[in-house]
Structures are given as structure tokens and as C-alpha cells.
Design brief:
- It is built from 10 helices and 8 strands.
- Helix 7 runs parallel beside helix 8.
- Helix content is 37%, strand content 17%.
- The protein has an 8-stranded parallel β-barrel, surrounded by 4 helices.
- The termini are close together.
- The protein is α/β, with parallel strands linked by helices and 244 residues long.
- The structure holds phosphoenolpyruvate (PEP).
- Phosphoenolpyruvate binds next to strand 8.
Length: 244
């Protein structure tokens, strides 16, 4: 029986054009896979759009058009047929100084164009050490989703990505993930009145830990970074999370 989990690959700023053609050959499905989303570097997106899975963009700018050199607008991404957008990834928050206010503007704009939003939230190692995880997650959720109407929540997916677990083979315990996901769902219900929010886990998911992570009862899927760049590895993760 197929599960209804979503598996999202965040390829970040990886692969050269020659790698992409090989990846496309290896990352292959015989039938349409709507529970698989690939977010390649933006310049490669047109190649992925013809494939039997969904495509997401790793970032968007909230203004519709104009003199914003180097940016991609929500309307441009929508006009290509891109379905998903990762917003608020910790690498954008940390390296590009994106604030909760910027993230909120991007979300409001992308929702209007029908995007499914993958909103990334998570605490740093320092915040965890200071026992601030709950406070940080609540602040991010309330500020990033400020003024989002309840009717749009079916387009929103939260990715819980502890910053300290990204790209380093360290993950929280199963119980920690389960409890944090429950906390996130509780915040969404309490402050936005929405009961069915999907929460993904992200941070060092790979083919070795996916069987275990996949047992966490309230997790709706996974956001996979480094392991999504290797087609074989990513297919193994999908095999467990989507097909079991
Ligand atoms: C990410 O950056 O979204 C991520 C989950 O990375 P990784 O899987 O490499 O930890």
C-alpha cells in the first residue's frame, strides 16, 4: 500500500549542467509521482518540469516584477508551472539575512499564485542549548504566517529542520522529533485554527536512517538536502517513505 507522505529534495546550489542530464536519466519513475518534489537550482528547473514528479523553487522574491536584478518573482515562477516553493530555509535566514518579515511577504505573495509553500523552521544549536527551541519555533510560525487566512493553510507545509541537524549526519531522537512536530501542530491549531497541517522532518535524512525516521507517527514526510543530489540514494529514501 502506498503512503501519503511527501518527499522533497532540496538540491541547493549543486550540480553542473552535465550532472543534471545524468541525474535525469537515473532519477526515473514509470508513473507519475505527485508525492515527490524536486527543488533544483533555479536555472535547471525547465529540465525537471518535463518529468513525472513535482518541481519546487528554493526561493522567491515577493515583488511581482521590476528592477530587482537577480531575483525571480512569484508570478514568473508560477508562469513556468512550478508548484512548490521552499521559503525560509535556514541557509537563507543565516547567509542572506532573511527576516521573518521578508519570509512572511514571500509566503503571502506565493499563496496568492497557488503555490504549495514549504516553510522551513528550526532552532540553532545555540538556541537548543539555551532551551529556546519552543520559543524560536513559535516566533517563526507566528511571524512567518502572520495574516495568512485559514483558507490558505491547505497550501502550507511546515518543514521542521533543526539547524544543527542539517548536513552533518546528526538527527534528533525519534521522540524529540515526534514531540516537536506535535508542538508545531498545536501552535497552528491554537493560533490559526487549522487542524490538518502537514509537518515534514528535515536534517540529515539518508537511506540509512529513513526506515527509522519513517516510523515517527505524526511526520508527514521529509525534506532531504544532501542525499537528494545522488539519484540512487534519493530513490532509496522515496522507496521507503512513499511506497511503504
Ligand atoms: C536541508 O538543508 O533542507 C536539509 C535537509 O539538508 P540535509 O538533508 O543535507 O541535512
Amino acid at each position: 500500500m502506498k503512503s501519503d507522505k511527501l518527499v522533497v529534495g532540496n538540491m541547493k546550489m549543486n550540480l553542473l549542467a552535465s550532472d543534471v542530464s545524468l541525474y535525469l536519466k537515473e532519477f526515473h519513475f514509470d508513473e507519475q509521482q505527485d508525492q515527490v518534489v524536486i527543488c533544483p537550482s533555479t536555472i535547471y528547473i525547465p529540465y525537471f518540469l518535463k518529468q513525472p514528479y513535482k518541481v519546487g523553487i528554493q526561493n522567491l522574491f515577493f515583488r511581482d516584477k521590476g528592477a530587482y536584478t537577480g531575483e525571480i518573482s512569484v508570478s514568473q515562477a508560477a508562469s513556468l508551472g512550478i508548484d512548490y516553493a521552499i521559503i525560509g530555509h535556514s541557509e537563507r535566514r543565516i547567509y542572506f539575512k532573511e527576516s521573518d518579515q521578508d519570509i512572511n511577504k514571500k509566503i503571502i505573495s506565493a499563496l496568492k499564485y497557488g503555490f504549495h509553500i514549504i516553510l522551513c523552521i528550526g532552532e540553532t544549536a545555540e538556541e537548543k542549548g539555551l532551551l529556546k527551541t519552543a520559543r524560536v519555533l513559535k516566533r517563526q510560525l507566528l511571524n512567518d504566517l502572520r495574516n495568512v487566512e485559514k483558507e490558505f493553510f491547505s497550501q502550507i507545509i511546515i518543514a521542521y529542520e533543526p539547524v544543527w541537524a542539517i548536513g552533518n549526519d546528526v538527527t534528533p531522537t525519534m521522540v524529540e522529533i515526534e514531540e516537536t512536530v506535535q508542538y508545531i501542530k498545536g501552535i497552528i491549531l491554537q493560533y490559526f485554527g487549522y487542524e490538518d497541517i502537514k509537518v515534514l522532518y528535515g536534517g540529515s535524512v539518508n537511506s540509512k536512517n529513513i526506515e527509522e525516521l519513517n516510523q515517527i507517527p505524526n511526520v508527514s514526510g521529509f525534506l532531504v538536502g544532501g542525499a537528494s543530489i545522488n539519484a540512487e540514494e534519493f530513490l532509496k529514501i522515496i522507496e521507503v517513505a512513499v511506497k511503504k
